[in-house]
Amino acid sequence: MSRVRLWQISIIAGSVIALELLCRLAIIDRLTMLPPSQMVAALFDVAIGSSWFWPDVRYTLFNIVAAVAISVIGGFLIGVIVHAFPRLRRLTDPIFTSYYSVPTFILYPLLIVFFGIGPLSLIVMGALFGIVAMIVATIGAIDRIPRVLLKVARVSKLDPVRTALLLKLPATAPHLMTGLRLAVTYSIIGIIAGEFILATAGIGRRVALSYNDFDNRTMYALLILILAFAAGVNALLSTLEQGLHRRWYRS
Amino acid sequence: MNAQAARPRLEIATTSAANATHISLRGISQTYLTHTGYRAIHALGPIDFDFRPGEFVSIVGPSGCGKTTLLEIIAGLVTPTAGIVSVDGQEITGTVADGIGVVFQEDASFPWLNVWDNVAFGLRRAGLEAAETTQRVDDAVAFMGLSTFLSAYPSQLSGGMRQRVCIARTLVLRPQIILLDEPFGALDQQTRLLMGEELLRLWRATGATVMLITHALDEAALLSDRVAVMSSRPGRLIDVVATGWPRDRDSKLVAKPEFGAFTARLWATLRDESRKAMGIS
């Protein structure tokens, strides 16, 4: 393990221990925050003892998977199309570059009007949030395909489909992976935040409910669950992405 | 400007001598439009040249004279503004001929495949039996001295070794025409000489027609049956010199006085052109 990684882990562990002590010594009020150890204990309690926990987890997970699928597949296809038409690219470029400066959530009420309060609004919200990251990554990835590989494809007399599958796709893999990681992260944010604002089920909604009911134990239990889930998914995808980058570019 | 309309239709010589021509270039010329599209830059030609079957020809010339463009025209990757490329009497201008292998100047190894799979890439789609594929890949890999790196990925290899992977990937297909664009540019002098010897060995074994682009005059002099010298832009052939070496030559040739004299002659022709290309008169 590298020194930097050791420091990173120490800082996180130190912060958790510090928080634990501050709560236990009542420097932080129990009404404000639970000690981290009790958050974990509370999470076990709701996971075993409540009737709503697993259905809500399933609901949220399903929405995330659907939103990720739309963002990644749709973003990839739109990216390929936009890249193929330079005029379309010039036209859409300002939209894509300024996209994340717009608070997309102001569109959520609009989505509810269109799609109703249910999974569809949430999935569209998550997909809207994630798709542009994938589009931008796909366009950048195709830009970076070394021209010499395309010459190899022509000399080898590969048809366009084989060129795409055997050369272009693997050549772009590391950059597509970056897009995938961002799309997944943004889709998770979109779904959880959408549920938090207005939904009929889901972990995000459950956080909002327990917050309104002053049910600190449940709220912190779910917060720590969401944090761990988002960080875990991100860590996994980052590891894959770094592995690809090392194999493709280290010399 | 309509380039297609201006393209002269030249008859291909069909005399008895045509049998002794493998690749024929007639009136090859290339003109680029600048980015703004208002100015045409005459980059290359007109070039007329015949490659005899099984001949090793090197092309030398000042940088920017269009050597790579000429190679890409022969490979069928670029359609010339004017002129005709034929292989075995068949016009192939602008299309990739059958049995052609190209080694590019840039690293063209596939980073997602290990050495063995890189070399096997083309053969996998050639419809060969698995045993035949394995045998040919193993041979090509051994030939290029990569046998101990079969499962290594390009990112774990040096630039020179990656270039050897690309050469092996081309050789394994047993092309009848091999086009090489400064394949040893990234190698040190000793490795260059040795790789040159390997290339000669391969050329003798396969009987392929080879065109080698290089900026190293000694390399051109050592390896070739004929050396073609190109002028500064627009690149034309200003001299074509036969070396007269025997077919089973090797790098010991470098020590002979004729070798020095030959290299000196090449440099004498090339010096003025290189000065022109650099803007020194």
Strand tally of chain B is 10
Number of strands of chain A: 0
CATH structural architecture of the largest domain in chain A = Orthogonal Bundle
Characterize the largest beta sheet of chain B: strand count, sense, and whether it forms a barrel.
6 strands, mixed
The H-and-E topology of chain B, N to C, reads as HEEEHEEEHHHEHEHEEH
**In percent, how helical is the residue content of chain A?**
over 70%
Going across the major beta sheet of chain B, what is the strand order? 6-7-8-3-9-10
Low-pLDDT residue spans of chain B: 1-18
What do you see in this structure?
The complex is a heterodimer of chains A (251) and B (281). Chain A has 251 residues and is an all-alpha fold. In chain A, 82% of the residues lie in helices and 0% in strands. Chain A folds into two domains: 33 residues; 205 residues, MetI-like (MetI-like fold, Orthogonal Bundle). In chain A, helix 2 crosses helix 10, helix 3 packs parallel to helix 6 and helix 3 crosses helix 8. The two termini of chain A are 22 Å apart. Chain B is α/β, with parallel strands linked by helices and 281 residues long. Chain B is built from eight helices and ten strands. Chain B is globular and about 55 Å long. The N terminus of chain B is likely disordered. Classes of the chains: A mainly alpha (251), B alpha/beta (281). Chains A and B meet through helix 7, helix 8 and helix 10 of A and strand 6 of B.
Write the layout of secondary structure elements.
The complex is a heterodimer of chains A (251) and B (281).
Chain A: H1 3-24, H2 36-49, H3 53-84, H4 86-98, H5 108-115, H6 119-143, H7 147-155, H8 160-197, H9 203-212, H10 216-249
Helix pairs in contact in A: 2-10, 3-6, 3-8, 5-6, 6-8, 8-9, 8-10, 9-10
Chain B: H1 3-6, E1 23-33, E2 40-51, E3 56-60, H2 67-75, E4 82-87, E5 90-91, E6 100-103, H3 115-120, H4 130-143, H5 159-171, E7 177-181, H6 189-206, E8 209-213, H7 217-223, E9 226-230, E10 237-242, H8 257-278
Parallel strand pairs in B: 3-8, 3-9, 6-7, 7-8
Antiparallel strand pairs in B: 1-2, 1-4, 4-5, 9-10
Helix pairs in contact in B: 4-5, 7-8
